[in-house]
């Protein structure tokens, strides 16, 4: 702590993947065994009195392969139905329209129970060759009254609808995330 203060550090990011397999500060994933130590709570016990603000890093763009395989219905899918399993050559990624979205919102509620100063989302993202999962296909059909285009191809007449759908899905995910954070920590996300 003294080293951080000596260099004028006022904010220190902590965190990691909240995916049950690469968690740096705490472990809250349902179904996984609890960690013996609450790293975030332990950090905050020392950081707050030292005058350090804490911003939690929350990776919402990649998921470690073993965890993703435990949740195949959360994974982003390519047009052929295969999961996106080559993020950083070993990881997968989850879909913002899948039940994973509720998992993220629950983790945000848990994080906001701590006296943190902010959350940095790394992501989310819809990869260029995705997302054609069952959740996106259903949501697209509900919105447009027809099947989702089978591929992302700019030459297709319905390409614009697919882009709009994915953009709106992303905006809804971020707005819902912000709404959860602001309901618990009104001063967060002030910009």
Provide the descriptors you would attach to this structure in a database record.
191 residues, alpha/beta, TIM Barrel, three-stranded parallel β-sheet, 6 helices
3D structure, described in words:
The structure is a single chain. This protein is α/β, with parallel strands linked by helices. It has a single domain (2-184), classed as TIM Barrel. Helices cover 37% and strands 9% of the residues. It has six helices and three strands, in the order H-E-H-E-H-H-E-H-H. Strands 1-2-3 form a three-stranded parallel β-sheet, covered by helices on one side. Strand 1, helix 2 and strand 2 form a beta-alpha-beta unit. Helix 4 packs parallel to helix 6. The radius of gyration is 19 Å and the shape is elongated. It starts with a helix and ends in a 7-residue tail after the last helix. Mean pLDDT is 83; it is low at 16-24.
Side-by-side strand order of the widest sheet: 1-2-3
H/I helix tally? 6
Taken in chain order, the helices and strands follow as HEHEHHEHH
Q: What percent of residues adopt helix (DSSP H or I)?
A: 25-40%
Biggest sheet statistics:
3 strands, parallel
Mean pLDDT comes to: 83
CATH architecture field: Alpha-Beta Barrel
Instruction: Give the full name of the CATH homologous superfamily.
Output: Glycosidases
Spans of at least 5 consecutive residues with low confidence: 16-24
Rg: 19 Å
Please name the CATH topology.
TIM Barrel
CATH class: Alpha Beta
Strand and helix map with partners:
Layout: H1 2-6, E1 11-16, H2 39-47, E2 53-59, H3 65-70, H4 100-112, E3 118-122, H5 134-144, H6 159-184
Parallel strand pairs: 1-2, 2-3
Helix pairs in contact: 4-6
